[in-house]
Automatic annotation (TrEMBL):
Pfam family, one: HTH_Crp_2
Gene Ontology terms describing biological process: regulation of DNA-templated transcription
Stretches assigned to the HTH crp-type domain: 149-223
One of the record's GO molecular function terms: DNA binding
Originating species: Seohaeicola zhoushanensis
Domain Cyclic nucleotide-binding: 26-90
Keywords: DNA-binding, Transcription, Transcription regulation
Stated name of the protein: Crp/Fnr family transcriptional regulator
Amino acid sequence: MTVEAHSPLIRKLSAFVALSEAELGVLDRLHRRRRTFVAGRYMVHQGQSGQVAYILSSGWVCSYKIQADGTRQIVDFQIPGDFLGLRSVLLRTSDHSFEPIVNIEAAEVLTSNLLDAFAQTPRLATAILWAASRDEAMVVEHLVGIGRRDAEARMAHLLLELGSRLALVGMGGKKGYDCPLTQYHLADALGLSAVHVNRILRQLRESGLVTFRDGHVAFHDYGRLTDFADFDLEYLDQTGPLLA
């Protein structure tokens, strides 16, 4: 099976580089080891050694750390087109866990295959480095959100960020997107209680900004919501190819 021309990963990397036929061929080989994972079962657990990376083809995943008291802090959500565990292929153990939110399909990428791909196609390696750097920029924004934004702005910013990321891979836009996250996922990502999340979502809905209901996020006034959240797309760096 070949990588489809409009697969999520190709859409994502094409925001940085115009991919050549040779680079598409390398991506195809990286997708050969396809696996499925059931919702709620570990893909990778914190402290696990001997890592491989994954390319998420369909479904949503959360990455998180478990604290000594058993509480969970979600670091990020992964959507189709994202790499999972890219950093851990160079580290001895994984410093956080990955768990599917819904049933997913992912391509398993061995460290040796990834390094071979980098050696064969330096431009593709640069594009993957761009994707990793973009992920790091999002984590920085999440840290700022938890530390400095009020709860309502924090929620609005996350929903806008997810919408922009999904738009890049053809799965969302300024009207909204399908979203499998529960209020517990949002609570663990934003440092809030589930009760507080429920109240914030109701306030945002009653303000005519956004509704999150029945697995769908609907933006009612995208411009006003971005102003409210002080959301600037610049950190996502997805305005078009930088390398020809």
